[in-house]
Amino acid sequence: MVQVFHKNWRWCLTVLRVPTARISSLATPSLSLMLAILVCGGALGASPASAANKKAAMVLDANTGKVLYSRNGDARRYPASLTKMMTLYMVFDEIKAGRLSFKTPIRMTKSAAKRPPSKLGIKPGRTILLKHAVRALVTKSANDVASAVAEHIAGSEAAFARRMTRRARSLGMSSTTFKNASGLTHDGQVTTARDMITLALRLQDDYPQHFYLFSTRAFNYHGKTYRNHNTLLRSMRGVNGIKTGYTRASGFNLVTSMRHGKKHLVAAVFGGKTARARNARMRSLLYSGMRKASTRKTRKRAPMLLAKPTLTPRASKQRVAARSAPTSKRTTRSKQRSPKRTVISEPPASPAPLPFRPAKTAKTAPSRPAQPRVAMARVRPVSVLAPQRAARTQLAPVTTAAPPSPPTPVRFARATTTPPARLKQTGPVVTIKRGRRPSTLNQQAARLANQRNYGEGLAPASTRWNLNGPRSNRTAPRHAVQPQNGPYQIQIGALPSAALAEQHARDVRARMSGVLNGYRPLTMPVMVRGKKLWRVRFAGFASSQASKTCNELRRNNIDCFVAQP
Questions:
Q1: CA of residue 179 relative to chain centroid, distance
Q2: pLDDT-derived band of residue 469, with 50, 70 and 90 as boundaries?
C-alpha cells in the first residue's frame, strides 16, 4: 500500500493542482509520502469505481431492445473518454440547429491547451476546423480539442458539462452526470453501461448521416496520421463503431456496435485491465449475443427531443406581463378584435405545397375564373382508313387565329364524317399518307440511332421490364458475372456455428442471385484464438471474376474478400 502511494503521489497532486516542484524541493521523501497519503488518500479511497468494482458489461439487441447480457449494467462507473460520445452528440445538435457547420473554425484557448494527454497539441490561438476536430475526438480522443469545442459552444467547459447532463437526461440516461467534455476523472462524473448503450443507439437513430464518423480508422492532420484506438474496427468484421476510453480510475472501457446480416448488437464493457483483455471480453460477448439476436426489427425509434430555444429578455418580459395582467370580459373581447402580438423564437416551417384544385364559383369570386394551363402538343396526322378511301378524303386548309381572351370559354368541335360527294372543295386537296406500322420502343430507339437490326444488342424479352405492369423489386446487378471454374474463393463471413454459417450463405445467395448463381457455397471449420468458427465461402471463381463479384457484393453492403485455398 505504501509503495502504491509513494509511486502515484505526484499524479495525485497534479490532479489537485498542487505545485509538486515546490513540495519536492522542501520536503523529504518520507514527508512527501505523508503529504500524498493525507492529500490523495481520501480521493482514492472514496472513488465510486475503485479497483474492486470497475468491471461492468451489457449487451443489447438493437432490433428488439432486449438485454441479452448484463453484469453490473446499472452500476455507476467512470466513463473516461466515452464522454466524448456525448460531446459529439451535442456538436451534432448544434449543426442541426444551424449554429455550427463542419467548416466552423474552433479556436484553441490557453485552458484547453493545458489539458493532459491524450491531446492533439495545438498551440493557443490557433484554430482547427470542426470537421477535423470531430475526427480528432473519434480517433485520437484529444482532450484539448474536446475542451476547445466545449468552450466554443457554451463559453466554458463547466457550462457545457451542465448542458450535456440536461441533454443526457432528456435521452433517458437517468444515471449519468457530466462534469467535463473530455472524460478526465472527476468524482461527480459517472455513468452506467445501460446509459452508454442508450447514447450509442440515439447517435445511430438521431444522426445516421454522421454516425459513419465513428468508424474512422485513421485521421491525417498536418502531416501526421493518428490511428483509431478501437482496434476492433480492423480485426472484427461487422463492427462499425463506436468509442474507447481509459483512465486509471476507470480502466479500459469500450462501446461497440456490430451488424451481421439483419442482426444488430450494441455492447458496453467497463473496467478492463488491458486493452487486449477488454477486446477479448467484447468479442466473446458479441459472438454469444449473435446466437440470441433477432433478425426482425421491432424496436421503435425514440422521438428526437430538441432543446427549447431561449427567449430574449424582451420576449420573456412580455410573457410575464401577459400572465400577470387581470382578465375581464372587456379585455377578452378587445383581444379578440385586436390583432394578437406574438413573439416567435424560431421561424415557422414552410407549409407543404397543396395539390391543384379548380376554383369554385361564388358570389365573391372574381369575374375571370382561374383556368389551368393547357399544353398543346404537335403531332403528325396518321390515317387509319384504307388507302383508296384516304385518297378521296379532303381537308380544308388550316388557318391560325389569335387565341381567345381568358373569359371566353374554349369550345372543341367534334369531327363528323360526311360522304365525299357532299364535301365542298374550298382549297387544294391534301392527300394523307399512311403512317408506319406499329413498333416497339426499342425498335424506335434503334431507328433513331440508324441501326438496321433493331433487336441487336438489346436485352432478351424475358429480362425486360413489363411496361404495362408493376416494376420488379429486384434489378440486375451493375456487373453481372458469368459462372466460371477457377481456384479462387470469396469469403463472406465467419460465424460461431455451422447452422448460422449455412443460413448466412443461403441469405446472401438469395439476395445476390444474379452474381452468385452457379458457384457452390462452402462452410469450413477453423480454430481462431482457441475458438471454433465456421467460414462461409463461395468457390469456383477465376481471378478476374472473383474481384468483380466481391466488388458487387461490397456495393450491396456485404463484406467479403478473395481467398485462394
A1: 28
A2: very low
Ramachandran assignment for 225, one of left (phi > 0), alpha (psi -120 to 50 degrees), beta (any other): beta
SS3 category, 416: coil
DSSP annotation of 137: I
Over residues 177-225, the pLDDT tens digits come to: 999 999 999 999 999 999 999 999 999 999 999 999 999 999 999 999 9
The C-alpha cell of 233 is what? 474496427
Max CA-CA distance within the chain? 133
Beta strands in 203-262 (DSSP E): 218-221, 224-227, 239-247, 251-260
502 or 338, higher pLDDT: 502
Q: Alpha-carbon distance 183 to 176, whole Å? A: 12
**Is the pLDDT at 132 greater than 60, yes or no?**
yes
pLDDT in tens, 310-340: 444 444 444 544 454 444 444 444 444 444 4
Cell matching residue 152:
466554443
Contact 198, 172 (CB under 8 A): yes
Three cell numbers at 260? 451481421
How confident is residue 552, by pLDDT bands cut at 50, 70 and 90? confident
Contact 221, 120 (CB under 8 A): yes
Please state, as a whole number, how many other Cβ atoms lie within 10 Å of the Cβ of residue 244.
Answer: 25
Q: Is the pLDDT of residue 504 over 80?
A: yes
Position 513 confidence tier, pLDDT thresholds 50, 70, 90: confident
Among 542, 508, 503, 502, CA closest to 522: 502
Which of the listed ranges 93-97, 318-322, 386-390 does the model predict with the highest average pLDDT? 93-97
Tell me, what DSSP letter sits at residue 51?
A: G
Is 509 in contact with 522 (CB distance < 8 Å)? no
**Sign of the four-CA dihedral 142, 148, 151, 157:** positive
The CA distance from 236 to 245, in Å, is 19
Written as nine digits, the cell of 450 is 440508324
In order of their start, the domains of the chain are 2-45 (no CATH), 51-292 (3.40.710.10), 488-563 (3.30.70.1070)
pLDDT of residue 160: 97
Q: How far apart are CA 512 and CA 558, in angstroms?
A: 10
Cell of 485: 471454374
Residues 548, 542: Cα–Cα separation, whole Å = 10
Would you say how long the chain is, in residues? Answer: 565
Q: What percent of the residues of the chain are helix, what percent strand, and what percent coil, each to the nearest 5?
A: 40, 15, 45
DSSP summary character for residue 459:
P
Distance CA 13, CA 6 (A): 12
Which amino acid is located at 181 in the chain? Answer: A
| Backbone φ and ψ of 546, nearest 5° | -65, -45
